[in-house]
């Protein structure tokens, strides 16, 4: 690989993450440029590729790191993902590529693929019928369980509603109008006290770091919702489950959110009850995780992109068996 590799970091905003990535690329002798997908275009008169990427003239970047995709209309987001698809068609390694991002952004597809690949995850229902969603809610409540209603597209713990019996009465299903007419329901898992979940970072088929997200806004433990980040031991159970989740969605790198099953020892996430995967983030932030681990996460991501994807485009993930240890060491 040439030491003068030119990398496009696709992002709709610059800041801490992009600064870390650009520094890591410079350390590897590469030129990294931040590009907003909204500024790119398909232009069949733009020889020779039919793609115009700002800052790269009539050429294309040697590789693309997807750090962020701005929200927008259905058409806008489709076009932005189309640019990533087109780059892949032109032979440019895209990390993560559009296919994997589409799977992870759509929570229903994430749940489907996790279940299809045998990755432990809570029972999930997704559909457009409010009547069916109400029946699910009633059935779960009758069994003494609660469900969580989430936006199909969403992140950082926004828009989550916990539904079930309240004051001896079943709370009604919220209007689907606030959820783009789609009901995505996931069985609620009662966590330990104080409440927490795990975030495990998977890079190139290997779990490399973990943390516990403790507290936050009630039962929602996202860093963006005020949860405190604590170092966590990266046990075999956590590592293996997170790696399998990333593989199920075809992600080069992934932030995997997990929670202990009811009755599982939350201190070791092992034994006969593996942790459950709640969500898989294909455009994962890592500022909170970086604060509790000595691993240079940006450098690890850049190394995987350059040494695995750019050196051998299309190379499959080769999971590394993790022998246990402390991710914060």
From TrEMBL:
A Pfam family per the record: Rimk_N
Alphabetical list of SUPFAM superfamilies matching this protein: Glutathione synthetase ATP-binding domain-like (SSF56059)
A GO CC annotation given for this chain: cytoplasm
Record domain ATP-grasp: where: 111-306
Molecular function terms, GO-annotated: ATP binding; ligase activity, forming carbon-nitrogen bonds; metal ion binding
InterPro entries: ATP-grasp, ATP-grasp_RimK-type, Rimk_N, Rp_bS6_RimK/Lys_biosynth_LsyX
Keywords attached to this entry: ATP-binding, Ligase, Magnesium, Manganese, Metal-binding, Nucleotide-binding, Ribonucleoprotein, Ribosomal protein
Necessary cofactors: Mn(2+); Mg(2+)
Keyword Oxidoreductase attributed: no
Protein name, per record: 30S ribosomal protein S6
Originating organism: Caballeronia glathei
């Amino acid at each position: 690989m040439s030491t003068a590799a030119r990398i496009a970091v696709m992002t709709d905003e610059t800041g801490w993450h992009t600064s870390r990535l650009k520094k890591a690329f410079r350390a590897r002798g590469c030129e990294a440029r931040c590009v907003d997908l909204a500024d790119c275009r398909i232009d069949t008169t733009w020889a020779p590729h039919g793609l115009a990427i700002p800052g790269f003239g009539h050429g294309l970047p040697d590789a693309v790191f997807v750090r962020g995709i701005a929200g927008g209309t259905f058409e806008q987001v489709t076009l932005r993902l189309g640019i990533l698809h087109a780059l892949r068609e032109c032979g440019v390694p895209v990390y993560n590529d559009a296919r994997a991002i589409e799977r992870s952004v759509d929570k229903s597809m994430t749940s489907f693929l996790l279940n299809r690949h045998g990755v432990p995850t809570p029972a999930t229902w997704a559909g457009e019928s409010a009547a069916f969603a109400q029946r699910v809610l009633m059935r779960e409540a009758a069994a003494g369980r609660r469900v969580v209603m989430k936006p199909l597209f969403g992140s950082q713990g926004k828009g989550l509603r916990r539904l079930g019996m309240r004051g001896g009465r079943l709370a009604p299903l919220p209007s689907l109008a606030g959820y783009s007419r789609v009901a995505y329901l996931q069985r609620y898992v009662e966590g330990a006290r104080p409440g927490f979940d795990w975030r495990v970072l998977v890079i190139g088929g290997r779990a490399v770091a973990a943390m516990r997200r403790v507290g936050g806004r009630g039962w929602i433990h996202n860093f963006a919702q005020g949860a405190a980040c604590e170092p966590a031991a990266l046990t075999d159970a956590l590592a293996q489950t997170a790696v399998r989740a990333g593989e199920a969605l075809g992600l080069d790198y992934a932030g995997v959110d997990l929670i202990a099953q009811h009755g599982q020892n939350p201190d070791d996430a092992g034994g006969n009850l593996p942790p459950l995967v709640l969500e898989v983030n294909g455009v994962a932030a890592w500022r909170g995780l970086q604060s509790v681990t000595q691993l240079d996460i940006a450098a690890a991501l850049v190394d995987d992109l350059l040494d695995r994807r750019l050196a051998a485009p299309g190379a499959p993930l080769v999971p590394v068996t993790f022998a246990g240890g402390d991710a914060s060491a």
